[in-house]
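Table 4 source record.
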Amino acid sequence: MSFKRIVGIAFWFALTSASFGQQKSESQTNKGPSQTPAEITTVRSYPGGNRPASRVVRTRTESGGREIITESTEVPRTDGRFETLVKTVTESVGIGSDSVMIKREVFGKGAYGQDSLVETSAAERENLPDGTSRTITNTWVPDLNGHLKLSSRRIEETKSASPDVRQTQMTLYTPTVNEPLSETERIQQIERRLGPNLVQTESQVDFRDANGRWQTTEMRNKEVRTINSAEVVEEQTTRSLDGVGELAISDRTITRRRSTGNSSDEVITEVYSPYVIGLVRDRDSSLELDRRVGVTTTRTTGGGSQSIIETEERFPSVLNGPIRVVARTVETVQQSGPGQWETQRQTFWLDGSGRLVPSVVDQEETKDK
């Protein structure tokens, strides 16, 4: 998977789950679920009955600077019992020190139902005396004969150029026809704190083309401005290659986070784009609102919470139509016992008649240490 794809996935995950990080941090002050629970079990079902249910079980153990996290995705067998489809085991050694070793193995089902190694990686994260942090990750996948073959190497280095400037560079190496490993992608990021209430971040993605030349494929500029203790505004502009091979604005995202005191928080994310369905524009025209995601989180008694996430978009079939709610998720977190929490997450999508109907239900159980 390319760096550009990784960045995109991370961005959209943050957009569609905007309340997650905030909810988890807030939950600690309200004695909510632990940030590092010992076990999380999530069962996903589909009220429409058109897809089988699934279950994800995540367990975590830690002792003496060693942590093991196991995550299993399970699906029902013909007899209704769950069986493991994919399992990931991540072991970290040296937690809390300046050198951490991380081993990750992904297993799937082989041709005869046995566990089969799909991918394995080893990472070493070091904190150097000058304050630089460096992580080197090697990833192997099996070939047709089952022998592990190095598929990529990623090097990430973060350092402080000054007290208010932090630089990060990520480099990806992959096999080529002529070399076992060759530098193929780069991401460079510079974060500057321009004052107590303003942080600017610039990032650039470069890709080596078929002729061996480096080409910038994406640039992002982000500003995070603290208005006051209860409001933060984040604005990010992305420039990507257009149809003629030039960098042009592909979207602008504005996120506003507001806290209304001890009872609730609100996060509204708006995405503006020059590519609006059903409307022809030139590259210099103004951006139009393409979609909006609103998250309202209300804390309840006992350290629980309720979050309502609404996604608004345009209908592809309606020419120049307005945006409207196309999905709604209601998430409720409540304590079920000492160190135990229950989360119900119900998502509604539009059906063919334009009504929001239950589409996905997640039941999650969390156990603290």
